[in-house]
Amino acid sequence: MLAFSGGGDELAFAAGFPGGALAVGLDPLSAVFLLPVAVLTAACGVYSLAYFPAADHPREAPRLRVSFGLSSAGLIVVLLARHSLVFLAGWEVMAIAAFFAVTAEDRDREVREAGFLYLVSTRASALCLLALFALHSAATGSFGLTPIGVGVVAPGIQSALFVLALVGFGLKAGLVPLHVWLPPAHAAAPTHVSALLSGVLIKSGIYGIVRVVSLLPDARPWWGEALLVAGVVSAVLGVAYALAQHDVKRLLAYHSVENIGIIAIGLGVALICRSTGRLDTAALALGGALLHVVNHALFKGLLFLGAGAVIQRTGTRSLDALGGIAAAMPATAIFFLVGAVAIVGLPPLNGFVSELLIYSGLLRVVASGAGEVWLLAALSAPALALVGGLALACFAKVVGSVFLGAPRHRSVSRGKDAPAAMLAPMAALACLCAAIGVVPFAFAPALAAASAVALRAPLASLDAPFAAISIVSLAALALCAAVGLALRARLARAPLEAAGTWDCGYAEPSARMQYSASSFAEPLVRVFSFALLPSVYSPRLTPIFPGPAAFHSEVVDAALDRILMPVVRAFADFARRLRVLQQGSVHAYLLYVWLALIALLAVTGATE
Amino acid sequence: MTLVDFAAALVIPLLFPPLMLGVITRTKARIAGRRGPPLLQPYYDLARLLRKGVVRSRTTSWVFLAGPVVGMVTALLAASLVPIGARGALVSFPGDLVAFAYLLGLGRFFTIAAALDTGSAFEGMGASREAAFSCLAEPAAFFALIVLVKLSGSYSLGSMLGPDLAELWARGAPSLGLATVSLFIVLLAENSRIPFDDPTTHLELTMIHEVMVLDHSGPPFALILYGAAVKLFAYGLLLVRIATPFHVDAAALGIGVALAELLVLAIVVGVVESVMARLQLLRVPSLLVGASLLGAFGVMLLVG
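The joint structure predicted for all components is written out below.
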């Protein structure tokens, strides 16, 4: 409570370590990130009791529980660390424990491959962070993560620190094209782990970027511009890829890429405004980004838990095999619908509030018209609108093909809803989504305090229309309830007739004739085919009475095969050439040592 | 805001919109050489539908009824954010243009969900097209509004479209002209008019909006028709205000002028529908991307 209201506390204990006392601390910025960790860890923990009971998984469950708890604990250490060694230790615990949580069901080949990809990228991220903190402590002479004074570190070094943070933390957060590990890992992990991974673990990357930038005194405008562009690319490509997925968990994972992009847009605007001295606008955009961090944890957690309930019930993750589940699982359907409306950013839920703040930041930069940077903002706002429209199409597809219509799957036609241990966490998350959407002003002071820390400036409050948002949300809810009740009363009196769905005169419609999720997304996938490169396998029907044929289409992520693998391969080739130097002969190594010594002497002699 | 303004802002969005549909139908009939139904026919239709019984598909759930309700409520709320003439809107705050777009988005989400709830292949097809086309129309609308944001230096509809609009035209006429054209295309697309969709077509395979509501009947269908009229009204209000930036000082006269302009817009839409054929569905995305590009050019022209 103290931290939310702008206070803070620090705790240091002297250990026999190089680099001074190991310090942990809590300030408003850490508090904003800690809140969703606490909520989501608890929700997923309760959920796992019914979703992944130890009785059914005697081999995996103990390991999964330990690694689940450890990764959450590591994340908390990361958020509280005020010393780079503490930060790195927490980071490693989180990353490695999350690997074991992701690969809980490692009898599956797909799971092992996803786990390996995750491990590689988290190692790459850790390497960047090692370089980042080494450079930081070399430049400041301390391991402490405290704000650097003006004039202590050269601007070039600060830019290098920013770039290292962007790459290292961007890998964890899943900014395009560094997101490749994210969809397979989320698809492979048990669903409550996916929820935690997507809801809070990848936010450690966002926290890292915000924290490192808050330490640096002189933000350059291009930092913000780079972050803004990375955010727009991630948001648009993330949601476009999501639209093309057939697997519900992969789809949700790509939406995490999209939402990380939206958060990065907010951070980018905030950085641009901070570097040009417009702190009010910076606080607005940053407040939006931070609120989106919290919001995304809530609604993405909710969506994963809802999807998990469906997966447990039907045993499939394929959208095209599901349908009509709302009849069998009405409560799950309502909670999932709440999550879907929230993630699309629609009023009256929480996603709308944070997206409105980020839009406000963008539009203010446009309205102020200063410099040339307004043009970047003017192009980003419509991109954000496009992302909103695509997300709407995507979640209409998910809700429609999983929960609505007629069942395409035999196992869903009857039975009970998910058990209470799974429904209760979903209900809690849905209520929080609604609370932030309807009374956003209650959360404003915490956001303002956190923004003040990140912007290194005193800030009283956010200049945002929270009251108006509240009025619009409440009006929407009240009017919908009133009209709905009136319609219900009217229908109670009307002659109500039940019939089959009108299929334009076709005699025997079947559930398999429904519009499938892939067909629903097809027009938009076609529009974005330049980026998605869909592979379509369509049969050729030549004779007059063609035999049975199958149509199949899929979109494979191009970033791994076309961008990252060539880089890795080039590096591997380079390393292979270096192998000539390493022949295992002691004489040659002595020669290298001698040459290195000469070189060092030459260098030190030249500099003195 | 005076009492007259307040009453007008409350009552006009409730009562006026179906008249625009009547004018469009009458215009099309006249151009085709027919007399056409009475101007007030949409009101009669609504009254008739409200009295009728309902046929519901056995596949559907509560979402099927939520679609019409949310669609109508969100259209009304969106309309209440747009100022009538240069007078203030019922609700105005910085960023309300985003709320305008997202409220209509909420309505669209539930309309699509209601269509998918029937499990019909045809309605799924319509829903898919609606989702795709309005998603491409969204950036076009934002580009047009951003031209106004840049020129007016504010981002609430009330001050963007306020009394100073004429002065903004003097400073950025080319950009505002492009924005107006782009917004007109968005209006046609979002309200399912020709060349995007033909509201009077009889072939389900070629429909967009009409096919999404095939299974609705009686009072819920009345809500859908009414909601569609309010949505046309909301977009129309935005468009005519940008296109005709005059400032009329007297409250009642200003509102009267705005409503007259809306009727002229309805005639224009009717003429467009009479003289154009609908586009091939595969070509629709190109037209919408074209509208976005027009808006983007409008923004570019403001550089410097």
